[in-house]
Design brief:
By secondary structure, the chain is α+β, with helices and mostly antiparallel strands. Helices cover 17% and strands 44% of the residues.
Length: 95
């Protein structure tokens, strides 16, 4: 009987954590030029190209982004939007 109670307790605790979700950020290029973007995640690194005025949905969460040639990248966790404007990355606040 104690095993069953413990199992239900564990399930209840785990179900409470199921509402925690990491949302991937969208990358929005507001400029009229394309950019090469370096994306670094726990799973590895990749390079992508974003076209002028393009939005890439769900590019990553908990990652690092950098525009090629500009060493001032941004680290994002679960922010909803990362914007490129005038050749610079900026992160939208969750607040």
């Amino acid at each position: 009987m104690k095993i069953i109670k413990k199992a239900f307790l564990v399930l209840a605790i785990l179900s409470g954590f199921s509402n925690v979700t990491l949302y991937a950020a969208d990358l929005v290029n507001s400029d009229n030029v394309s950019y090469t973007i370096f994306v670094d995640t726990d799973d590895g690194s990749k390079t992508i190209t974003i076209a002028p005025n393009e939005t890439i949905s769900e590019i990553c969460s908990d990652c690092y982004l950098e525009i090629d040639g500009n060493p001032k990248g941004v680290t994002i966790e679960n922010e909803p939007i990362v914007t490129i404007k005038d050749g610079k990355l900026s992160v939208a606040s969750n607040e």
